[in-house]
Design goal:
With about 250 residues, this protein is of the alpha/beta class. It is built from 10 helices and 10 strands. A hairpin with a 2-residue loop joins strand 9 and strand 10. The structure holds adenosine-5'-triphosphate. The site of adenosine-5'-triphosphate has 11 residues, from helix 1.
């Protein structure tokens, strides 16, 4: 069981002169799913990417503010970003398995972090595929290319890959938006299972999905955090008019 949450204080992110995220403070609890919602361009993905310093890979980005995990501010200089991304994993919108076998997709991370024993790696591969509800579909083809899997299976493989390195937090950027309804339902089931162990933060444009999978919801607009609270409250009784307008489809 992981007991780690994340505490964001006054986070701002600039692309050159443009302030895409404006002094956002937000707490994320362990074993909860938080949905980040808001109209296109409001800064959800930029905010999400800053939580494991993926924005560092984009030129011209400046970040200010603090992001605390286990007593460490991840924005401090000297933070080992490889280790950080082991602790805070990311699942992207489009499934992006490595051009390797199903087995190697899972084993790669643990091996990189020092696990050499084949028996141990075999165990990790099976455990992660089981937890991603993919074992039965793949156990007879573990050494075949991951690219031969369907899109939905590839996304579940990417989730299995992300948990193989024992993260504390999993970030998901519209993880089901490229998938059909059946695969989407499987990903949502998987999120509900994984939240028993992890803190999950998900960006979604799908209001039904946010209502189904999340415990808490944060509404962003024009780079600002407008409102956050229990998902039920945000969807039934939002405080801010702009939140109400957005979730009822009046803009965005
Ligand atoms: N690499 C970049 N360089 C410059 N500006 C960027 C970059 N990425 C995003 N932006 C700008 O930052 C703002 C926030 O973008 P971001 O992608 O975070 O929003 P979003 O809410 O996730 O949007 P969407 O829902 O469409 O994915 C937008 O105005 C966008 O144009």
């Amino acid at each position: 069981m992981q007991n780690t949450g994340l505490s964001v204080k006054n986070l701002s992110v600039f692309y050159g002169e443009k302030e895409a995220v404006k002094s956002v403070s937000l707490e994320f609890s362990p074993r909860q799913v938080t949905a980040l919602i808001g109209p296109s361009g409001c800064g959800k993905s930029t905010f999400l990417r800053s939580l494991n310093r993926m924005n560092d890979t984009i030129g011209g980005v400046k970040t200010t503010g603090e992001i605390w995990i286990d007593g460490h501010n991840i924005n401090d200089s000297g933070v080992d970003v490889v280790l950080l991304r082991q602790q805070i994993g990311m699942v992207w919108q489009r499934p992006n398995p490595f051009h390797k076998s199903i087995y190697e997709n899972i084993a790669f991370g643990p091996r990189y972090h020092g696990i050499r024993s084949k028996r141990e790696l075999d165990g990790i591969v099976e455990d992660c595929l089981r937890r991603a509800a993919l074992w039965e579909e793949t156990k007879d083809r573990l050494h075949k290319s991951a690219l031969a899997l369907s899109g939905g299976q590839q996304q579940r493989l990417c989730i299995a890959r992300s948990i193989a390195v024992k993260p504390k937090i999993i970030l998901m950027d519209e993880p089901a938006s490229a998938l059909d309804p059946v695969s989407t339902a499987k990903i949502e089931e998987l999120i509900s299972e994984l939240k028993k162990e992890y803190c999950i933060i998900i960006v979604t444009h799908n209001m039904h999905q946010a209502a189904r999978v999340s415990d808490r919801t944060a509404f962003f607009y024009m780079g600002k955090l407008i409102e956050t609270g229990e998902t039920d409250q945000i969807f039934t009784n939002p405080v801010e008019k702009s939140t109400d307008d957005y979730i009822s489809g009046r803009f965005g």
